[in-house]
Structure formats: structure tokens, C-alpha cells
Amino acid sequence: MPITRVCTPRLRLLTSVRYCPISRGRPYHSYEHESDPPPFNATEEAVLAAALRQVPEHGFTDASLSLGAREAGYLDITVNLFPRGSFDLVNYHLVTRRLALKKALDAQAAKDDGGSFKGQGVGTKVKFLTLERLMANRPIIHRWQEALAIMAQPSCISTSIAELARLSDEIWILAGDAGVDSSWYTKRASLSVIYSSTGENLAHCTAPKPEAMLMSGLLELFMTQDQSTDFADTQKFLDRRLEDVRIVGSGISNLKGYLDFTAHSFINVLRSKGVRI
Amino acid sequence: MLDHATDVHGDGETSVVVADINADMLAEGRKRARASRHGAGARLAFVEANAQDLRAAGMADASFDLYTVAFGIRNFTDPAPALREAFRVLKPGGVFACLEFSKISAPLPLLRTLYTSWNFAVIPLLGQLVAGDRDSYRYLAESIERFPDQRTFGDMIKAAGFVVPRSGPAWEDLSGGIVAIHKGIKPLE
């Protein structure tokens, strides 16, 4: 039985549309709108997909967009379809990687006839999906810091943060979160923070250290070594962050329980002394 | 545009065709072009043409990469045939870009009323005082009022066959909606 979400309707303001985020009016997942039209039309999809293939070599730049337009059979001037320039390319990567999570989860669940997730809680799926999304950055990880710089620009930052919020919502929904209380907000907020910090860690770790490169003299060998160790390190980092959240979360709820009990006891003692509270 | 192509992109081959239905406007354009660095070259051409029927001016199908119209489409008798002609003469992947007065998209109806009253009351008066030409400025105010709003014009552009951005804003408002930039791409097939 699908759980209907209790959500406050978003006020639709008639604001000017200059550089607004994708205004579908819904920054959260909704079961009633699962088959929405794709966020990119055919032309955008063709050009951006081709441009994304150029990113490992040319980075998130207008050069990648032009090359992508040419490869897709369009003219150089067609990049005018993307007034936000390289941010449109970053946004395409973020949206497509987010929408690919569902397939990844289904593929993993279908493996061993559902054995990987049988009997496991929501936490296992959250960890799998977060790792899956981080690993999806692997082909362009050496360009990721450039992408972060683009996302941090004032005209783009609200869209980037909205995308991060949608990603964390998507991960929780796919993992099967059914809560409708205030933990809906805290879960998504904590996952957004963990994901960004782990993603940052991943981006930093993969940049090869120049001194070690000089010492080893074999660039390719060092980079392949670097990547495998660091991705294992990143997985351990993610484990530690998720454990932190669990410990802190349980710590806070214990503290709340303790304070609650103490306050009630205090009031009851005062009442027993005759104070009218 | 030629300066941008030459100085920013190092492109010395791009050429521009300037079209207008009024021969006097074209003459004024030629005069200004002579004073610029591109006036003498072969990269700038002036053609007298009706935007609603460019075939009569000899413009072939799929012969242009970029079609721009700034504060002009409001004056066309019927923008829809002009949009279809733009679609015809553009190459697949070509860009149609239009800068035009539009409706204020602010939430307060008061702002819109103020803007309209200013257009109809003050502008013709200033035109009379400064240029001695009240009628032209009254026409300006009327043509702005008559022109469809951003969403309707965007739909007209789509109806002509253009593809407009879906992942980002479909048009760009300037000065709260007083002026809007619409862009469309001619699809490949």
C-alpha cells in the first residue's frame, strides 16, 4: 500500500524566472508523480550527453559543451541552449547520476535473488546507495573540484543545494524510509552533510601528490595504486561518518530522555511539597 | 556581433545580413556601418526584406546559423509567419534569439498598473516635448501593451517548431519583466 506523503503545498510566487532552479514545484519525492516527464528535452539530452563524454579530457568548460554539440551533429552556436554554460553540464551530471540510483538498487537487489538486502534494514540500503552515487563520480573525479567551484557561484548555488537535497531525499526514499515525523528533515540533512564531506574527501584524496609522482617516476602506476587505496579509504570514511551519526543520534535521544525525566521528577517533587504547578 | 566573432573567437569568416522592411532604416544602418571597421568589408550585407516572407528576398532554406531580432518583432503585423520564416532559414541546430518588451512578472498588480500608466501618460508627453513627436511614442506604448506575455510568446516560438530550454528557464527576464530574451533552437530532424 503506497504511503501518501503529508506535505505542505508550496506557494507558487509569480517571480521573474531569471536563473531559477528547475521549478517543478516539488523539492521532495512524491509517489503520485513518479512518472514525471524527463527533466531534459531531446536536444539538451543529446548535446549534454555528448559533452559529458568530453569532460574527462576538457573539464566542465564551454569547450566541452561546444565539442559535445559538434559530436551530436549540432552547430557550435547551439550551446546557446544553455545560458548557464558549464553549470548546465554539471547539473546534467548531477541529475542523471541521481536518477540512475533506482536502476542500480534494482540491479543489486536482483543479484542473488534479493539476497544482498534480505533481512537488512534501511541503513544498509542507504549505505549502498550513497557509495553507489559517490562511485558514479569516478570517471570525472579529477574534474570534480572544478565542478564544485562552478556550483559555488552565487547564481548557481541555490540550484546546487536543491539538487543535493533532492539526492538525499531520493536515497532515503529508495532505501524505504517511511517516516512522516520531524526525523524526515533530520535524516535528509545529516545525509546531505555526510555525502558532501565524503565527496570532498574523495575529490581531495584522488589528486596525486606531485612529490610522490617524481619519486616513483611511473605516473600511471602511481595513479592506479592511488585510486584503489583511496576508494577503500573513502568507504571506511563513509562508514565512520554513518557510525558517528548513529552514535550522536542515539546520544541526543538519550539526552532528551534524561532531561525529560529529570524535569518531570523536579515538577513532581515541587508538587509534593505543596507548590501549585 | 562581428567584433565579438573577430576579437573573442578569432573568426574572420562569419558574415552578417541585416534585413529591414524599411529602406530608410537600411540607409541609416549603412551610414553607421561605414563609420565602423566592418563597413567596407564583405562581411556585412544590407537587404530589404519583409520578415514574414524572406523567400521573396532570396533567402534560402537552412542558410543561417543565428537569427536575432531586437525590439523588432513587436512591430511585425503578425509575428507567427515571421517565426515560421525564421525556422525555415535557420540551419538545424541554429539559434533564434529575440529581445522584446514583455509583461512585468512581479507579483504586485500595482507595479503593472504603474508601468502601463507611465507608458501611456508620461512617455508620449516626453516625446512631444523632446522630439516633437507624440504619435510615435503613443504607438510605442500601444505596441508594448498589445504584445503577448512571456509564456504566450514562448508557446508561439514552440509552435513554429523551435526547441526551448527545459532544464533551465525558458526565457530570461530583464528589469523585472519589462524586457525578455527568448531563445529557440531548430531541432535536427
What does this structure look like?
The complex is a heterodimer of chains A (277) and B (189). Chain A has 277 residues and is an all-alpha fold. Helix content of chain A is 64%, strand content 0%. Chain A is built from 10 helices and no strands. Chain B has 189 residues and is an alpha/beta fold. Chain B contains 6 helices and 6 strands, in the order H-E-H-E-E-H-E-H-H-H-E-E. In chain B, the strands form 2 sheets. Chain B has a 4-stranded mixed sheet. In chain B, helix 4 packs antiparallel against helix 5. The longest helix of chain B has 23 residues. Chain B is globular and about 50 Å long. Chain B starts with a helix and ends with a strand. In chain B, 24% of the residues are buried. At the A-B interface, helix 1 and helix 3 of A face strand 4 and strand 5 of B.
In short:
Chain A is mainly alpha-helical and 277 residues long.
Oligomer: heterodimer
Helix content of chain B: 40-55%
CATH topology of the largest domain in chain B: Rossmann fold
Strand order in the sheet with the most strands of chain B: 3-4-6-5
Helix fraction of chain A, binned, reads 55-70%
Structural class of chain B: alpha/beta
> How much is the radius of gyration of chain A in Å?
23 Å
